[in-house]
Specification:
Blueprint: E1 2-8, E2 12-19, E3 24-32, E4 45-46, H1 48-66, E5 73-80, E6 86-88, E7 98-99, H2 107-116, H3 120-127, H4 136-146, H5 148-153, E8 156-158, H6 160-169, E9 173-175, H7 176-179, E10 185-186, E11 191-192, H8 194-200, E12 210-212, E13 219-220, H9 223-228, E14 236-237, E15 241-242, H10 243-250, E16 258-263, E17 267-271, E18 285-288, E19 294-300, H11 304-314, H12 318-326, E20 336-338, E21 355-357, H13 366-390, E22 397-401, H14 408-418, E23 422-424, H15 430-443, H16 449-456, H17 475-491
Parallel strand pairs: 1-5, 5-14, 5-15, 9-12, 16-22, 22-23
Antiparallel strand pairs: 1-2, 2-3, 4-7, 6-8, 10-11, 13-14, 16-17, 17-19, 18-19, 20-21
Length: 495
């Protein structure tokens, strides 16, 4: 049987076809797009119709590639960018463009909510999360305060992947994983936080869709879409989830000890937990996952954005960058980069900038700067991993994804800095694969998501990287130094 996985992101939508018998991706398609142009600084929005058009186009391309095998399709799963706000009216029509996860225009609304409930610490105690501009809750309050005529029309609040499920099935529903990123849900109890809903608006609770298990399918494919795509009439649409939740399934991060680290433009590092993980300091997001467990997660804004800046600065290819880094010892002879080139989420430095510390006549070389850059962004993720360890997460294996995972020298740096074995995945489209696996588990529930993920997620054994045996260099001390420098400069308003 064949299962389709859709990954709807900020820059493109991808659809894959997973052959459940062979475990192979047998067809794929992608359609790029952009955010809406001309908006004020901090406002980042997209029309949900952009996503549905991309879903139509990519599914059609994949089905064309499948040919006669399209009749074997039995399920579809959807991964979506987290935290976006899709407002629907009483007729199920989109009221205005969706505000995205990267929209930072809601800082004032975050402050209003945070102040009302007694500050960040009180909010973390109440729902397990601080109120951050990326989350959905402040976006709803922003709509009420800035576009009251649109808020008056609001009948249903959806997240991007929920909207695509609605498009596919006609059903209005949220599952625990993506819903945990709204800051409207108590992540420990997996129930709506009624007092936060009431503060935003007394009628908001009635505008939230049914909240339920990530294991429960959303429904079946609408007959008109089955006819349009020439598919069987009983196609199951699984619950889907946020891109990190689906990425966890697609990297096999569905059991204790496994941790996923993404080395993309920005970075994420997250782990499976069978109980809630709430960080009193608010640095680790205490999300739920999309298997009815939990997914403590940290996000950093500067990973390949920094290494690419260094590479472009010196006019190198990726291979030349790696070769240069190999000529410099671990620790870059004392050169350290605070890699906050476009602000930072963890630590929370929205206006932060980058700092090179330790420049000498010896270290002021392209190769030293390159090594310090790669180490600096990896230490940024290690800051989050250290916090996870303090909260009880015990990593036994780091599963690397993203463009940076292709670099052997970077994999070794990760293994040494994380002090843990590092592996890579055979399939790079982890979120789309996770969506297809969840759809498979929904259609064939005789096995769990864990069973199917263990069976279908393939590693690259040749890329397995162990920490350097008996290292002469202590990266933990460099992380201490990076943390201390960041704190001192931020406290002095110099960062």
């Amino acid at each position: 049987m064949i299962y389709l996985g859709i990954d709807c992101g900020t820059q493109s939508t991808k659809t894959i076809a997973l052959d459940a018998d062979s475990g192979r991706i047998i067809a794929s398609a992608a359609q790029p797009y952009d955010v809406l142009p001309g908006l004020p600084s901090g406002h980042l929005e997209q029309n949900p119709s952009t996503w549905t058009q991309a879903v139509d186009a990519t599914i059609s391309q994949v089905l064309t590639a499948l040919g006669a095998r399209r009749s074997e399709v039995r399920g579809i799963g959807v991964s979506g960018q987290q935290h976006g706000f899709v407002p629907l009216d009483k007729n199920g029509q989109v009221i205005r463009p969706a505000k995205l996860w990267c929209d930072t225009s809601t800082a004032a609304e975050c402050d209003l909510i945070r102040t009302h409930f007694g500050g960040a610490k009180a909010l973390i105690e109440k729902v397990g999360l601080d109120m951050l501009p990326g989350f959905t809750a402040p976006k709803i309050l922003w709509l009420k305060r800035n576009e009251p005529e649109n808020f008056a029309r609001l009948a249903t609040v959806l997240l991007p992947h929920d909207y695509l499920n609605f498009y596919l099935t006609g059903q209005l529903r949220m599952e625990y994983g993506d819903a945990s990123g709204t800051a409207l849900m108590n992540v420990r109890a997996r129930t709506w936080a009624r007092d936060i809903l009431d503060f935003i608006d007394p009628a908001l609770a009635d505008k939230m869709p049914l909240l339920g298990s990530s294991r429960q399918p959303t429904g079946t494919l609408l007959p008109e879409l089955a006819t349009r795509w020439n598919l069987p009439a009983d196609i199951v649409i699984s619950a889907g989830g946020g891109d990190n939740m689906m990425g966890a399934i697609g990297t096999g991060n569905v059991a204790p000890g496994r941790v996923t680290a993404s080395l993309g433009t920005s970075g994420t590092i997250y782990a499976y937990s069978d109980k809630p993980v709430v960080d009193p300091a608010g640095e680790i997001a205490g999300f739920c996952d999309s298997t009815d467990a939990w997914l403590p997660l940290v996000c950093t804004m500067n990973v390949t954005v920094a290494t690419e800046a260094a590479r472009n600065l010196f006019g190198w290819s990726h291979a030349q960058l790696d070769d240069a880094i190999r000529t410099v010892p671990p620790g870059a002879d004392g050169l350290l980069l605070l890699p906050y080139l476009q602000g930072e989420r963890t630590p929370n430095l929205p206006n932060g900038t980058g700092v090179l510390h330790g420049l000498t006549t010896r270290t002021m070389t392209p190769a030293h700067i390159a090594r310090a850059t790669m180490e600096g962004v990896t230490l940024g993720l290690a800051y989050g991993l250290r916090r996870m360890r303090a909260l009880g997460i015990v990593p036994t294996e780091i599963r690397l994804t993203g463009g940076g995972s292709k670099s052997a020298v970077w994999r070794q740096i990760c293994a040494d800095i994380f002090a843990c074995r590092v592996v890579t995945l055979a399939e790079s489209e982890a979120a789309a694969l996770g969506s297809a696996i969840q759809a498979l588990a929904a259609a064939e529930p005789q096995k769990s998501v864990l069973d199917w993920s263990n069976h279908l997620v393939q590693l690259n054994p040749a890329d397995t990287t162990q920490p350097t045996a008996s290292p002469a260099f202590d990266y933990s001390a460099v992380l201490d130094k990076q943390t201390s420098l960041t704190t001192a400069l931020a406290d002095s308003c110099f960062l």
